[in-house]
Design brief:
alpha+beta; 57% helix; elongated; CaCA
Length: 87
């Protein structure tokens, strides 16, 4: 089943049911990042700060978040283009 979107007089067919993979990946990444931020606040090794503390952990947290975002965008784009099958 598809739905139509009309833009500037042209039809655009988009399959329904393709949102599940994107939402699942986003939810998993969000939960992992929240766990990481809570761990950074609770354990003294991280300097007891979500985004502050020692430079090593601060930069590592930022890089992990950036990599997760890039992976989410890539997988969602591949799925939207039909290279990855949605469940």
């Amino acid at each position: 089943m598809t739905y139509l979107v009309f833009d500037q007089g042209q039809e655009f067919h988009h399959p329904t049911g393709t949102l599940g993979l994107s939402v699942t990946i986003f939810t998993v990444c969000a939960i992992l990042l929240i766990i990481m931020l809570v761990a950074r606040r609770q354990f003294p090794i991280f300097g007891k700060a979500e985004l502050g503390g020692p430079k090593t952990f601060k930069h590592l947290t930022g890089m992990i978040a950036l990599v997760m975002w890039v992976l989410y965008v890539i997988v969602s784009s591949l799925q939207a283009q039909g290279y990855i099958e949605a469940f």
